[in-house]
Amino acid sequence: MNVDLSLLAPEIALAVLGLGILVLGLLIPKGSRHGLGWVTALGLLGVLGLTIAGWDNQGTLYEGIFIVDRYAIFFKITFLTAAFLVTLGCMRYVDEMGDQSEYYSMMLFATLGMMVLASAGDFMTLYLGLELMTIAFIVLVCYRRTETRSVEAGIKYVLLAGMSSAVLLYGLSLVYGVTGSVTIYEVGRAVTTEPVPALILGVAMLVAGLGFKISAVPFHMWTPDVYEGAPTPVTSFLAVGSKAASFAILLRVFIAALPGLWAHWTMLVAILAAVTIIVGNLVAIPQTNIKRLLAYSSIAQAGYILVGLVTASEAGIKGVMFYAFLYVFATIGAFTVVTYFYNVTGSDEIKDYAGLSQRSPLMAAVMVISMLSMAGIPPLAGFVGKFYLFKTIVDNYLWLAFIGLIMSMVSVYYYLRVALVMYRDEPVDHTPISLSGPVALTLIITMMATLVLGIYPGPLSEVVNTAAHSFFLP
Amino acid sequence: MVLSEWTGVLLFFIGGLLVGGGAIVTSYLIHPRRIQAQKYEPYECGVDTIGPTWVQFKTSYFLYALLFVIFDVETIYLYPWAVKFQSLGLFAFIEMIIFLFILIVGLWYAWKEGALEWK
Amino acid sequence: MLTTISLAHYMVLSALLFGIGLFGVLAKKNAIAVLICIELMLNAVNINLVAISKYLTPALFTGQLFAIFVITVAAAEVGVGLAIIIAIYRNRLSVNLDDFDWLKW
Q1: Transmembrane segments in this chain: where (chain B) (predicted)?
Q2: What are phi and psi of A61, to 5 degrees?
Q3: Percent of chain A at pLDDT above 90?
Q4: Could you give the CA distance from residue A310 to residue A404 in angstroms, rounded to a whole number?
Q5: A233 and A291 in contact (C-beta within 8 Å)?
Q6: CB contact, 8 Å: B62 with chain C?
Q7: Nearest residue of A to residue C56, measured between CA atoms
């Protein structure tokens, strides 16, 4: 059998790294495992380099069940960047939780699952990648197993994730039954515009199953609970990585495998996007817990990204990829602040953020910039991303663009409420918060990325163009 | 009566019913009828239970069950590989070694964390 | 009248099983019962996959392979799920889903 293993190099390296961290944890005595975070971060950086080096090395493996095109590589770069930043920002939090080696290796396996998902060329690889990611996340969500909220979030996640993947699988089996193939591009050739009832049912189940993963309304019920209960670094990785990976496969399945049924699912996706944007933004307004606020705002963000799927065009794919990439920096920036703030004060309530600008100007600034980027205020990166996304739909779906615009304004309201608390209110406790090295580095990287991508999006836009173009090649 | 492929199933069903039911009916007809209090005990022979019988089992069993599941499911991959061992060759052999190695790391982890100790 | 068993029979069986599982997931209050119902749904999918593989693509074993992977992943999921149920039982002394109400909006 001839297999070009160089295409698989990043995945193999990451799997070895994950196992290696687990084994290292067994060999090193319990008290001295603080260095594992750095090993993980450097290892992720190495894998990231390997992935970027493979930019020109495209191809498929095992008769098309594993696709390495620039589209997949771009998403892998996104996941690895996110994993690197989360690892850098969470070391102190993890040291306080204990069991570092298991935590980092679970994190690496979740990343591996996302990478497999981005490259999935058939339904089996899709399912395996999805479940590798999900099971690793289930373990991570209830990682503070003595704390009730964390375990409760875990049980909600495991039951709902199990149900959603069963629904997804049933949909996949129906598509397989109608088309007689599980390979995505072969399914794409077999699907005709003629609406077969079983296929329509299968597609509806796919929407439900993947909608759960991206937390689109009405499949979002788990999101706020799990986001609030999970350890904060896990929440940020869940919000970024799991969502981006699910979008990667959502685009692949719907645009490559089901183009014949475009007329049937495009309206469904448009309505889903509109409802998600509206509900996410409106329910975010009364929240008092910062993690819940960010959870609802991430639901709204999923709605914005769904807009890119509506037209099923190269421009739409480009918008999704661009937005997913910059969303990494905005979300991780905000969540790193939340993580560190919790480490120092032990609170996640918005009112306790009073006067953060006096206690730590950098943290307050990163929070505000990240949130304004999510709201889409120029000249931050989020504005450019939203511009690319909504540009694709103004011709045919003006009402959706309108909803997006109005709800963006609504989101500014609740984001600015947090900013006001941080900048206007007087702090109860005036002691300044001193940042540790890696956390400060994470914050500065995310802030710079959000600013630079907003002011000068040209180069990234070029990269995304070639990546989106490769999607239609095979 | 048309003999279709299902007639065999029907005959088997009737035969099974006759044998099973016949045993019960026969024993009902010929068994001695002596009514004593002991006949109404849960067990006719052996010792009476002490305390409530609805006790909970220790969760120590649970970890063994989990480990069992892992190595139980592993065989599902070993069988097809073993059947086609000759034609798959060295590549598949190395792949299987890697697969088993990963599982053994898992077992080592469980061992080291004390999952195999009886508490 | 006796007919030969066709793909449709398997599909109906699987749909029924899936429906029962889905109903159980939504209606049951006991966490372990919900986990069992999820297994039921996954097994419905397995029936579907194997039947389709047998009737539509008898030369390939795609569906059966898929079923093997589903079984494996289901085992992993149940392992994690049971571990979490044990953990929450230690915290709360309950496996009733109605009792898990610390997180609410």
Answers
A1: 6-30, 61-82, 88-111
A2: -120, 155
A3: 26
A4: 14
A5: no
A6: yes
A7: A180
Residue given tokens 């609740």 in the structure block:
A414
Which residue does chain C place closest to A135, by CA atoms? C77
Cα dihedral C23, A182, A222, A82 in deg (nearest 10): 170
Note the pLDDT tens digit of each residue in A327-337: 999 999 999 99
**Would you say the C-alpha torsion A38, A41, A42, A43 has a positive or negative sign?**
positive
For residue A61, the surrounding DSSP H or E stretch is strand A59-61
Do you know the residue count of chain B?
Answer: 119
Smallest Cβ distance to B62: which of C68, C72, C86? C86
Here the ipTM equals 0.92
Q: Which of A108-122, A181-195, A337-351, C54-68 tops mean pLDDT?
A: A108-122
Residue C40 has pLDDT above 50, yes or no: yes
Residues in A touching B102 (Cβ below 8 Å): 19
pTM of the prediction?
0.88
- Chain C residues within 8 angstroms (CB to CB) of chain A: 7, 11, 18, 21-22, 25, 31, 34-35, 38, 41-42, 44-45, 48-49, 52, 56-57, 62-63, 65-66, 69-70, 73, 76-77, 80-81, 84-85, 87-88, 91-92, 97, 100, 102-105
| B96 found inside a domain | yes
Chain B contact residues (CB < 8 Å to A): 91, 102, 105, 108-109, 112
Contact in structure between A258 and A186 (CB atoms under 8 Å): no
Residues A390 and A403 sit within 8 Å (Cβ to Cβ): no
B105: closest chain A residue by CA: A23
Looking at residue C97, what DSSP letter applies?
G
Measure Cα distances from A352 to A289, A295, A361, A428, A430 in Å.
10, 18, 15, 8, 12
Count the residues in chain A. Answer: 474
Which residue in the set C2, C71, C82 is minimally distant from B6, CB to CB? C2
Is B39 domain-assigned? no
Question: What pLDDT, on a 0 to 100 scale, did the predictor assign at position A346?
Answer: 83
Q: Which position has the token pair 């197993």?
A: A145
The fold of the C7-99 domain, in CATH, is: Helix Hairpins (1.10.287)
So where are chain A's domains? 5-470
Angle at C74 between CA B87 and CA A40, to 5 degrees: 85
The string of DSSP codes covering A304-360 is HHHHHHHS-SHHHHHHHHHHHHHHHHHHHHHHHHHHHHHHHH---BGGGGTTHHHH-
pLDDT digit string (tens) for C83-102?
888 888 887 777 777 777 66
Contacts of A163 (CB under 8 A, 6+ apart): C22, C25, C38, C41
Contact: B102, A23; criterion CB under 8 Å? no
| Domain boundaries defined on chain C | 7-99
A177 touches chain C (CB under 8 A): yes
The answer to whether residues B108 and B65 belong to one domain is: yes
What 3-state class would DSSP assign to A407? Answer: helix
Range of B2's domain? 1-31
CA distance A318 to A468: 5
CB atoms inside a 10 Å sphere around CB A369: 26
Q: Which of A323, A301, A322 is nearest to A375 (CA)?
A: A301
